[in-house]
Write a structure and sequence with these properties.
eight-stranded parallel β-barrel; 43% helix; 298 residues; binds coenzyme A; TIM Barrel; binds zinc ion; two-stranded antiparallel sheet
């Protein structure tokens, strides 16, 4: 049996949070239904953040109450304890928390210092452990920060160790602005896989410099088997200037399947979801292999 790669679909959160046009709650629910139908094993539904900070994500509680019934893991991003409580109240039992590796990125993203962000992250992790809530802890700007420049591997390894002491369900290394390269990814991920094992790790890549898929491959070589990806390659962070879209789900699935891994994704249905997204956004979406994949599935 071939080895499985788990793709966490983040278009409905990372994808939509930076779009100039704000989808309605009904549109977001329809998108989630299409993505669920495509067989994604994990689906991020939105975020419980301040609607003043990210108006695109307003109404995620309503979405949580109207999720398609599907055999998959739903999750949401929470920026602080208030978001954690709102998400739990909405019935979500798996949360992403994003802690940036640098002072400036935390200040810009959640208006907290680096140290305060980590203390808050630890508090959320400890509370979640007692309440049976799974937390995916994201270390954002793990390779380069839009405000402070290059981030050292040694710093990231220390920060991961600090977070791992509080037992996240997954620790995700996030290249928020798409500045990583495959050598840096393989070096960092190999050390982390050797130390913590692949089950506890994930990677989140953006494709700003066309190295997204190469970075996925480097992480695969290091043993990583859990990746975030966004249908159509939609994505970006409103607080990280220059960040382009995530690696496209269809491209990551194609890469994995082509070298012998299974993803359980239904490619024609995934492309249907991308088409729906294009219609809603009002501009064509699609990963780098969009034309070829569309012909294959026609
Ligand atoms: N969800 C909804 N509202 C929230 C909230 C949450 N998780 N956390 C705080 N708020 C509300 C407060 O109740 C308060 O509301 P009020 O003005 O009506 O009284 C207001 O937001 C300000 O609260 P405060 O604690 O001072 O927050 P802040 O202004 O320092 O902003 C964040 C901090 C984290 C809430 C805000 O920066 C944010 O939501 N950032 C989102 C970052 C993000 O999603 N980035 C992209 C993904 S990594
Ligand atoms: Zn991202």
């Amino acid at each position: 049996m071939s080895e499985k790669v788990i793709i966490k679909e983040v278009a409905a959160r990372d994808g939509l949070q930076a779009q100039p046009q704000h989808l309605t709650v009904e549109q977001r629910i329809a998108l989630l239904a299409a993505l669920a139908d495509a067989g994604v094993p994990e689906l991020e539904i939105g975020s419980f953040v301040s609607p003043k900070a990210v108006p695109q994500m307003a109404g995620t509680d309503e979405i949580a109450a109207n999720l398609p019934v599907a055999d998959l893991a739903y999750s949401a991003l929470v920026p602080n304890m208030k978001g954690y409580e709102l998400a739990v109240r909405a019935g979500i039992r798996s949360h992403a928390i994003a802690l940036a590796a640098t002072e400036e990125m935390n200040q810009n993203n959640i208006r907290k210092s680096l140290e305060d962000t980590f203390v808050m992250g630890e508090e959320i992790l400890d509370r979640a452990a007692t309440e049976g809530v799974a937390i995916h802890a994201y270390l954002a700007v793990a390779f380069e920060c839009p405000y402070e420049g290059a981030v050292s591997e040694a710093l990231v390894l220390d920060q991961v160790a600090r977070l791992m002491a509080h037992k996240p369900a997954r620790l995700v290394i996030a290249d928020t602005i798409g500045a990583a390269n495959p050598a840096a990814v393989q070096s960092m991920m190999q050390k982390l896989v050797d130390r913590y094992g692949p089950e506890l790790l994930g990677c989140h890549f953006h494709d700003t410099r066309a190295m997204g898929l190469a970075n996925v491959y480097a992480a695969l070589l290091a043993g990583v088997r859990q990746f975030d990806a966004s249908a159509g390659g939609l994505g970006g962070c409103p607080f990280a200037p220059g960040a382009k879209g995530n690696v496209a789900t269809e491209d990551v699935a194609m890469l994995c399947e082509s070298i012998g891994y299974t993803t359980d994704l239904n490619m024609p249905k995934l492309l249907d979801a991308v088409a729906l997204l294009s219609e809603m956004i009002g501009a064509p979406q699609g990963g780098r292999a969009h034309t070829w994949l569309s012909k294959q599935c026609a």
